[in-house]
């Protein structure tokens, strides 16, 4: 039945993609009269402004209007618009996965995600900094596959690039205020103006507060699954001359939530107290409601200088991140394990690029990159009886620091082999150095000081690509590339050996096309991945650490479509197929449910098993999305649909997130003078119950639910 349903869903999406083509033939005459065409999309996937259709890389691009129409308000729900991408959340950290390549849901401080996130060319090193809402964005680019040459920094599976608006000299203001169910109030402001002939600045501010939770903590009687967030950002653009552009940006944000933190048992399972079981999809039963709080901010300086023979780009950044977790780790009324930590990070990056000028016979880029990070727990503390007899009550406090240095040099060049054929080659050599030390205090037990440990991880990554114009507006390409995720010390386990780097070799072919007088854009890519030394999470006593434990292979196909079937109607569609399995994983953590009964019962017994041949976690076989936007008079009508075939949270393949469907919709009215806009919107209109996060360990099998059906009204005002 499930396979039939999956086939029907994919069939409907495929029909929407394929059957629209005859409509173009019928509408071709009207197209010629109206002149309606798909606009060119500019991306910086190769660190310079280029037409999306001329870049031999699989890239999904979302404009600000597209994200708004599809109900994508932040990175946490970005997956609904990009099939093949999973952007799950674990406590206060983003744990993205793309094409079966991802980050373990239990990443610790100092670790970095396998899908790198950038804002305006600045790398966000900490997983907690990758969770944010969108405001003042121009577009989002999702680069698929390893970007080990031009981005490099742990971009093993891909890159998410967020590009924000540049300040304008012409004054303008955008203001929005909204109200939604669950007593949710939101507001945002964006304003820009010129301050002098050569100086312009902008300011964006956003705030949201969800007053009521999606459910209840049955033990305390309080609401659960609430959130609030505040963010402010400003950019200053200075152009002292025709050949110089200087951009200074600063941002600060803070958030508090228990979404992705508080947990309830999977139906049919019991937590470690042997009593707590499923009591409602949006309910918990914790001794206190778990929550996460994140404060982060930073400054960046970007200098663009035209040297004539080349363009020089310098990007400097400094960021600080402080996150706090207060979690009832056993997720039950029993005081079996309480977890709390304060994690701090300070990161400095410096990048220099030299790019060939426009019209150069050889398109080239060369650069250098410096990364400096200091991260640590100050402190991490967990307390409670050990999960095995004789259940001795302990309190463990860890204070530690990891210092990281990374140096890289890179270059890439594209040459014309023939008038319609180009060859691209690139190399990047990276040297990562890590240094870790810490103090662990166990009561009862004693104080243990781990010696200062050092490790060095040099790695050469590359890319070679051949692309060819098969006709007007039809590009084909083939690529072989390598990316890697750096080695790291396990700060939750001071004194342990470092985890080795993960290495991904990727082979990809694809084509990009603008068809039928540029009214149909169809891009397709197929890939094969060979992934070695995968860093996976495993339980060690009361904690979770990373180990090198597996090899995997992934193969799949991505299809992206955008179309103008008829006047005032825009259609978008995408389908992703992933077949990702472990080739060799003989020391996976397996969990066997324990029967309930009383204190110390329930939960899971953990053993070592062979997961070879199993599907990799968070890699759904099928995902698909279809959205349509229709404008009639002063009204914009938007409907989007997303399907996820389901996936496993664990390597054992015993804990599955079931398939789900999401339908979002909005209706917007804009005044004749374009100054006022009123929108009615709804998300998850089918009231699908699916999970934001899943965890299986000795304390039980738990999930944190994603949002139920939400709806509201937004009033906007625009002035310029």
Could you walk me through the main structural features you see in this protein, from its secondary elements to its overall organization?
The termini are far apart. The chain is 5% helix and 60% strand. The chain is mainly beta and 720 residues long. Strand 21 and strand 22 (363-385) form a beta hairpin. The model is unreliable at 1-33 (pLDDT under 50). It is built from 3 helices and 41 strands.
Beta strands, count: 41
Radius of gyration: 25 Å
Assign an overall shape.
globular
Specify the structural class.
mainly beta
Please report the distance between the alpha carbons of the first and last residues: 55 Å
Proportion of residues in helical segments: under 10%
Quaternary structure of the protein: single chain
User: Unreliable runs, pLDDT <50, ≥5 residues?
Assistant: 1-33
Work out the strand percent: over 45%
Topology diagram in text:
Elements: H1 2-18, H2 20-34, E1 42-43, E2 50-51, E3 59-63, H3 64-69, E4 85-90, E5 93-98, E6 101-102, E7 115-119, E8 122-124, E9 137-144, E10 158-164, E11 172-180, E12 184-196, E13 199-210, E14 215-216, E15 223-224, E16 227-241, E17 244-257, E18 264-265, E19 291-306, E20 311-328, E21 338-355, E22 363-385, E23 393-418, E24 421-443, E25 446-471, E26 474-485, E27 502-515, E28 520-540, E29 543-566, E30 569-584, E31 588-593, E32 604-609, E33 622-632, E34 635-644, E35 647-648, E36 656-657, E37 660-670, E38 676-683, E39 691-697, E40 700-705, E41 710-719
Parallel strand pairs: 7-10
Antiparallel strand pairs: 1-2, 3-9, 4-5, 5-6, 7-8, 9-10, 11-12, 11-41, 12-13, 13-16, 14-15, 16-17, 17-19, 18-40, 19-20, 20-21, 21-22, 22-23, 23-24, 24-25, 25-26, 26-27, 27-28, 28-29, 29-30, 30-33, 31-32, 33-34, 34-37, 35-36, 37-38, 38-41, 39-40
């Amino acid at each position: 039945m499930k396979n039939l349903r999956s086939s029907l869903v994919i069939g409907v999406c495929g029909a929407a993609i394929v059957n629209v083509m005859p409509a173009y033939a019928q509408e071709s005459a009207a197209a010629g009269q109206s002149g309606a065409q798909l606009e060119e999309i500019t991306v910086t996937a190769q660190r310079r402004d280029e037409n999306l259709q001329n870049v031999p890389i699989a890239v999904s691009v979302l404009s600000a209007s597209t994200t708004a129409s599809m109900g994508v308000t932040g990175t946490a729900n970005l997956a609904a618009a990009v099939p093949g991408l999973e952007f799950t959340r674990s406590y206060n950290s983003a744990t993205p996965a793309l094409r079966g390549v991802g980050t373990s849901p239990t990443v610790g401080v100092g670790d970095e995600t396998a899908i790198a996130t950038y804002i305006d060319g600045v790398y966000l090193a900490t997983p907690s900094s990758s969770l944010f809402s969108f405001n003042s964005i121009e577009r989002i680019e999702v680069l698929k596959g390893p970007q080990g040459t031009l981005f490099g920094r742990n971009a093993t599976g891909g890159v998410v690039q967020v590009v924000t608006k540049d300040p304008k000299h012409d004054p303008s203001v955008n203001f929005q205020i909204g109200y939604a169910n669950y007593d949710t109030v939101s507001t945002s402001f964006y304003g820009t103006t010129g301050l002098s002939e050569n100086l312009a600045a902008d300011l964006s501010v956003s705030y949201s507060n969800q007053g009521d939770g999606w459910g209840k903590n049955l033990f305390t009687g309080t609401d659960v699954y609430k959130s609030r967030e505040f963010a402010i950002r400003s950019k200053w653009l200075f152009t002292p001359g025709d050949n110089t552009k200087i951009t200074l940006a600063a941002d600060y944000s803070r958030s508090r939530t228990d979404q992705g933190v508080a947990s309830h048992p999977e139906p049919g399972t019991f937590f470690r107290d042997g009593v707590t079981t499923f009591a409602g999809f949006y309910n918990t039963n914790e001794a206190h409601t778990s929550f996460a709080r994140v404060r982060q901010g930073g400054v960046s300086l970007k200098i663009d200088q035209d040297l004539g023979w080349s363009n020089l780009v310098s990007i400097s950044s400094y960021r600080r991140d402080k996150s706090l977790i207060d979690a009832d780790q056993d997720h039950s009324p029993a005081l079996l394990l309480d977890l709390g930590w304060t994690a701090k990070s300070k990161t400095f990056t410096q990048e220099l690029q030299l790019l060939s000028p426009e019209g150069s016979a050889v398109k080239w880029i060369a650069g250098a990159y410096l990364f400096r990070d200091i991260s640590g727990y100050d402190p991490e503390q967990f307390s409670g009886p050990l999960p095995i007899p004789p259940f001795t009550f302990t309190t463990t406090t860890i204070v530690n620091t990891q210092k990281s240095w990374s140096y890289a040099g890179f270059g890439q060049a594209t040459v014309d082999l023939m008038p319609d054929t180009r060859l691209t080659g690139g190399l990047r050599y990276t040297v990562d150095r890590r240094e870790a030390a810490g103090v662990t205090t166990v009561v009862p037990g004693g104080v243990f000081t781990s010696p200062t440990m050092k490790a060095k991880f040099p790695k050469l990554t590359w890319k070679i690509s051949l692309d060819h114009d098969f006709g007007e507006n039809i590009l084909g390409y083939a690529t072989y590339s390598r990316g890697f995720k750096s080695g790291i010390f396990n700060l939750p386990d001071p004194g342990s050996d470092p985890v080795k780097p993960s290495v991904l070799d990727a082979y990809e072919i694809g084509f990009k096309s603008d068809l039928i007088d540029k009214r149909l854009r169809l891009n397709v890519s197929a890939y094969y991945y060979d992934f070695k030394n995968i860093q996976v999470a495993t339980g060690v006593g009361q904690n979770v650490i990373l180990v090198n434990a597996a090899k995997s292979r992934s193969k799949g196909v991505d299809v992206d479509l955008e179309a103008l079937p008829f006047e005032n109607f825009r259609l978008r569609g995408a389908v992703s197929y992933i077949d990702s399995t472990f080739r060799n994983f003989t020391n996976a953590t397996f969990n066997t449910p324990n029967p309930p009964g009383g204190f110390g019962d329930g939960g899971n017994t953990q053993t070592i098993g062979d997961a070879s041949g199993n599907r990799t976690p968070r890699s759904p076989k099928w995902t698909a999305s279809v959205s349509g936007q229709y404008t009639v008079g002063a009204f914009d009508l938007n409907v989007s649909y997303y399907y996820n075939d389901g996936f496993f949270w664990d390597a054992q393949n015993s804990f599955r997130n079931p398939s789900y469907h999401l339908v979002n919709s909005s209706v917007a009215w804009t005044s004749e003078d374009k100054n006022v806009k009123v929108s009615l919107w709804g998300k998850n209109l089918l009231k699908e119950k699916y999970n934001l996060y899943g965890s299986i360990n000795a304390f039980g099998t738990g999930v944190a639910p994603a949002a139920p059906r939400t709806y509201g009204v937004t009033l906007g005002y625009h002035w310029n």
